[in-house]
Design goal:
Layout: E1 3-4, H1 5-12, E2 15-18, E3 23-24, E4 26-28, E5 37-40, H2 44-47, E6 57-60, E7 73-76, H3 80-91, E8 106-107, E9 112-113, E10 118-119, E11 124-125, E12 130-131, E13 136-137, E14 142-143, E15 148-149, E16 154-155, E17 160-161, E18 165-167, E19 172-173, E20 178-181, E21 186-187, H4 193-200, E22 214-215, E23 222-224, E24 229-230, E25 235-237, E26 244-246, E27 251-252, E28 257-258, E29 263-264, E30 269-270, E31 275-276, E32 281-282, E33 287-288, E34 293-294, E35 299-300, E36 305-306, E37 311-312, E38 321-323, E39 328-329, H5 330-363
Parallel strand pairs: 4-5, 5-6, 6-7, 8-11, 9-12, 10-13, 11-14, 12-15, 13-16, 14-17, 15-18, 16-19, 17-20, 18-23, 19-24, 20-25, 23-26, 25-28, 26-29, 27-30, 28-31, 29-32, 30-33, 31-34, 32-35, 33-36, 34-37, 36-38
Antiparallel strand pairs: 1-3, 2-7, 21-22, 38-39
């Protein structure tokens, strides 16, 4: 499909400079753009690359002179990166999965498939599954017994959803995402070495504690709200006796792990390689930076942000920005880190002072 610059401006809330009737069909890096692409040059450093390509139009920053870059038209958006969310959706061609139900798909006769649903090759839909209208189920997916999927879901290749999962509308799962695996929940007959270490903070001896692990089964499912997106190879475990819950608008990155019984509020952002241990609770609008680790049974308040590789070992009140291991207020961590970097110099200074003092003592 092609769009006029004026059409795009209306869709993304931008102002038009130059020829609004110019048609484009995609977006591109300025240096790689062809005549039918709109170049993404929201910063002067990117606009300098426009002459290397063949773009006739670009998204520029407020105050930019589009004619100086040899363009016929430009879009000026107050928040260009936000405008990209609408523009990228307009031109996205997707994975080009075939429409309809592929003949190799295996669908239980009790499953309820909504209108205009596409189901890819080698996908398995179990008994009593419900799939909402307009959903796209990619190749080699599995949807387990009794699971309910809302309208306009989009499952990429190899998504696995277990039994008794409830998912809202407009759900997106990237390749290999797994929802509804059993939780990592094991127990020993006697008090385990892990419990001793935790209770004593490492002071007690655990050298003679052999242990065999008994499995606690995961009896509950997973409940996921509307407009949720799970990254590639993201894992969400089912609950033990109450469901794991993910609120509306939550987005997770690749390789993130959400443990059993976890409850996540609305509009949270879970970045790559984040691990949230069992029974932890996150409020609304929480952002966990990449490789953040959250210990079990932790409560994190609303609007909390953690920096990359933060390790959360205790509860965090609302509105805090946290960093480090163990997590502390971000400004405190940075101050501590600066002091740590000065420590070698301080130690050398102390050593020199000691030498001077001892030398003075010997001379008296």
């Amino acid at each position: 499909m092609t769009y006029t610059i004026r059409d795009i401006a209306i869709a993304i809330g931008a102002d038009v400079l130059g020829d609004g009737s110019l048609e484009v069909s995609s977006v591109s890096d300025p240096a790689l753009a062809g005549p039918d692409d709109i170049a993404l040059a929201m910063d002067p450093k990117y606009a300098a690359l426009i002459p290397q390509g063949r773009a006739r139009a670009a998204i520029l920053w407020p105050g930019a002179d589009y004619k100086a870059y040899g363009l016929q038209a430009a879009l000026i958006a107050p928040r260009p990166r936000y405008a990209m969310s609408t523009l990228s959706a307009m031109v996205d061609r997707g994975q080009r999965f075939t429409t309809g139900v592929h003949p190799t798909a295996v669908i239980d006769p009790t499953a309820q498939i909504g209108a205009d649903v596409s189901i890819g090759p080698l996908t398995v839909i179990a008994a009593e599954v419900v799939i909402g209208d307009g959903s796209v189920i990619g190749p080699q997916c599995h949807i387990g017994f009794g699971t309910r999927l809302g309208s306009n879901a989009y499952l990429r290749e190899g998504v696995k959803i277990g039994a008794d999962v409830v998912i809202g509308d407009r759900f997106i799962a990237q390749p290999g995402a797994t929802i509804g695996a059993d939780g990592f929940s094991f127990v020993t007959k006697e008090v385990s070495a892990v419990e001793v270490a935790r209770n004593s903070l490492g002071k007690d001896d655990i050298s003679d504690r052999g242990q065999s692990w008994a499995r606690i089964h995961s009896l509950a499912g997973v409940i996921i709200g509307d407009d949720v997106e799970l990254g590639a190879q993201c894992c969400v475990d089912r609950g033990t006796v109450k469901p794991t819950k993910i609120g509306n608008g939550v987005k997770t990155d690749n390789l993130s792990q959400i443990g059993h019984n976890v409850v996540i509020g609305n509009d949270c952002l879970i970045c790559a390689q984040v691990g949230i241990a069992g029974s932890s609770v996150l409020g609304n609008n929480v952002i966990l930076g990449g490789q953040t680790g959250v210990s079990d049974n932790i409560t994190i308040g609303d609007n909390v942000i953690t920096g990359g590789a933060t390790k959360v070992l205790s509860n965090i009140p609302s509105g805090r920005m946290m960093l480090g291991y163990p997590a502390m207020k971000m400004d405190s961590h940075i101050e501590t880190y600066k002091a740590l970097r000065r420590l070698p110099k301080l130690m050398r200074t102390v050593a020199e002072l000691q030498k001077a003092v001892f030398k003075t003592d010997r001379n008296t």
